């Protein structure tokens, strides 16, 4: 059975998830900022990170990527449609806010380009392309473990914003309908911000999905 640790990081409290197994291997999802807090958790639990996986390349999900990649010599996974976003503040959104530094992250090591079963060491997950919040948004489903990491596509009682570069409400709702709401009703969905939820809960009570 896999274990999930959650940290709320950075200026907008982005959820970073550490998924680990009994052998102490782990994957890091969306290390948005505060690399020292992530390192402290890894050290406390004696975890060995194998990779960094990004649900998308907005600034609040990528701030600690280079620190962790260099410290642990691990690859970064990102959808190919956002391959240029890591290094361009006008695309990753950091250039939009005067109070933030420009986020310029090195290129991803592995570009994801199709929906498939993704194997990283002992970890196996199903990759879904879930655009709408951003063109390269993806979700990672650990079906046999009963959870998925869904980024900013779907939140408890809400959905991702679509007013950023290349966002699309139509595509977002299609992604939610076809990729997330079709998952098992009780599967735990871990979003990029806020508390977790399930497809059943969102079908029953999310006001943005009442017409789906």
UniProtKB/TrEMBL annotation:
Domain Metallo-beta-lactamase: where?
13-193
Q: Which Pfam families match?
A: Lactamase_B
Q: Write out the entry's keywords from A to Z.
A: Hydrolase, Metal-binding, Zinc
Q: Has keyword Amino-acid biosynthesis?
A: no
Stretch forming the signal peptide:
none
Q: A single GO molecular function, which one?
A: hydrolase activity
Q: Which InterPro entries is this protein grouped with?
A: MBL_Glyoxalase_II (IPR051453), Metallo-B-lactamas (IPR001279), RibonucZ/Hydroxyglut_hydro (IPR036866)
The cofactor(s) it depends on are: Zn(2+)
> In the UniProt record, does the keyword Ligase occur?
no
Q: Which PANTHER family match?
A: HYDROXYACYLGLUTATHIONE HYDROLASE GLOC (PTHR46233)
Q: What is this protein called?
A: MBL fold metallo-hydrolase
Species this protein is from: Planococcus salinus
